[in-house]
Design a protein that fits this description.
The chain is an alpha/beta fold. Helix content is 39%, strand content 25%. It contains ten helices and 14 strands. The strands form three sheets. Strands 2, 3, 4, 5, 6, 7, 13 and 14 form an eight-stranded mixed β-sheet that branches. Strands 1-11-10 form a three-stranded antiparallel β-sheet, covered by helices on one side. It is globular, with a radius of gyration of 21 Å. The termini are far apart.
Length: 329
C-alpha cells in the first residue's frame, strides 16, 4: 500500500477540498508517483525559473529571443502574406519579453491589430496592460485573464478578424507527444480556416547539450524542483526532507523526451496534513515534468495531425530552435 490513511502527522490539518491538496495527494498515491508541474510557479518558483533562463546551459530562451529580435521583419512579412488583416492572441503571454519584438515590428509595418494576451495570472495581465503600451507606442491591447480555451472564446467574441495565435517559449514541449496532439487538435477547434499559429519547438540536438540545460552546474534547476516540495511543506503542512531526495533528469534521444524526477534516497514516510501518509521505497521516483524535443519532420506531422499546414519556419543561428508558422486548413 502506498497510502496509510488516518495516520496523524506532526502538522496541521489541510482540508481535502483544497485543489492543491487534492492534486498533490492524487499524484503521490498513483502507482507512478508524480506532481503536477503547474504548481512549480509560486513566488519562489517564479524567481528560480527566471534564474534558470539566465543559466548559460539553458539555451532555449536565448535561441528564441534571437529569432524574434533578428527576424521579426521576416515573420511579420509571412503573417501579412498568409493572413492579411488580423489580430494577435498570445497564449501564456507572461511578460511578453520576446513577443514585444514582434508587436513592435507589426506597428512599424503599419498593421492595424489588437493584441490579446492570455494568462492564468491576473497579475501578469495587469502588468502587461500597465507597462506594454509604453514599450510599444500605439499598441492596442486587450488583456484576457483565464484558461486558454475559454479566453480564446472571449477573444473570438470581441473581434471577427482572423487570428494569429502565439504559443512561444517551447511551451508545446511541456506536453508529451500524445498530449501535444490532443492540445493542438483542441486548439484548432477554436480557430477558423485561414487563422495562423506561431509556436516554438526545441529541436533534437546532441543529448548532452539538452541534458545540461535541465541539470545546470549552479543547481538552480535542482532547487526549482525541490521548491515544490518546500511549497507542499509550507502550504499543505507536509514534512518532506529534501536531503532525502535527489534531482535526476533524463533524456532519451530517440523519443526526444527530457524528463525530470526526484528520487527517494531511502525507505521513508512523508506526512501531508493529518490525513495522509505516503510511503517511499528507496530509489522510488516522483515524476516532475517533461520537456519534449522534436525533429522538423515531427513538427510537420504534429501540424498535419491537428489540422494545420506548415507554411514557414524560423531558426536561430545554431538551428537548435524553431518557431513554426502553421495555417488552419
Amino acid at each position: 500500500m502506498t497510502v496509510i490513511p488516518n495516520v496523524l502527522a506532526p502538522c496541521k490539518r489541510k482540508p481535502a477540498t483544497d485543489i492543491f491538496y487534492h492534486d498533490v495527494v492524487q499524484g503521490l498515491t498513483a502507482p507512478q508517483k508524480y506532481l503536477d508541474p503547474k504548481y512549480f510557479y509560486d513566488a519562489a518558483g517564479d524567481a528560480l525559473f527566471q534564474q534558470i533562463m539566465q543559466c548559460h546551459e539553458y539555451y532555449l530562451t536565448g535561441c528564441e529571443m534571437e529569432i524574434l529580435r533578428e527576424q521579426s521583419a521576416q515573420i511579420v512579412q509571412a503573417l501579412q502574406l498568409y493572413a492579411g488583416d488580423f489580430d494577435v492572441v498570445e497564449l501564456g503571454a507572461g511578460d511578453a519579453t520576446k513577443s514585444v519584438h514582434l508587436l513592435q515590428q507589426l506597428i512599424n509595418n503599419g498593421v492595424d491589430y489588437t493584441y490579446f494576451p492570455i494568462d492564468i495570472s491576473a497579475n501578469v495581465i495587469t502588468q502587461l496592460e500597465k507597462n506594454l503600451p509604453a514599450q510599444v507606442p500605439g499598441l492596442q491591447l486587450h488583456g484576457l485573464n483565464g484558461e486558454y480555451f475559454h479566453m480564446l472564446q472571449q477573444a473570438n467574441k470581441v473581434t471577427a478578424k482572423k487570428k494569429v495565435l502565439l504559443f512561444m517559449g517551447a511551451n508545446i514541449g511541456n506536453f508529451s507527444v500524445s498530449a501535444a496532439r490532443s492540445f493542438c487538435q483542441q486548439l484548432r477547434q477554436y480557430m477558423q480556416p485561414g487563422d495562423l499559429l506561431l509556436t516554438g519547438f526545441d529541436l533534437k540536438k546532441h543529448p548532452q547539450v539538452i541534458l545540461n540545460a535541465y541539470n545546470d552546474s549552479a543547481g538552480i534547476t535542482r532547487a526549482f524542483n525541490f521548491n515544490l516540495l518546500h511549497r507542499i511543506n509550507r502550504e499543505l503542512y507536509a514534512d518532506f526532507d529534501t536531503s532525502k531526495f535527489e534531482h535526476f533528469p533524463t533524456y532519451d534521444p530517440v523519443t526526444g523526451a527530457c524528463k525530470s524526477y526526484l528520487i527517494s534516497l531511502e525507505n521513508q514516510q512523508v506526512h501531508i496534513g493529518e490525513d495522509t501518509t505516503v510511503n517511499f521505497a528507496e530509489n522510488e521516483s516522483i515524476y516532475m515534468e517533461i520537456s519534449q524535443k522534436y525533429s522538423l519532420e515531427e513538427t510537420d506531422q504534429l501540424a498535419a495531425y491537428a489540422g494545420f499546414r506548415p507554411v514557414a519556419r524560423f531558426f536561430d543561428r545554431k538551428h537548435w530552435f524553431t518557431d513554426c508558422l502553421w495555417k488552419c486548413i
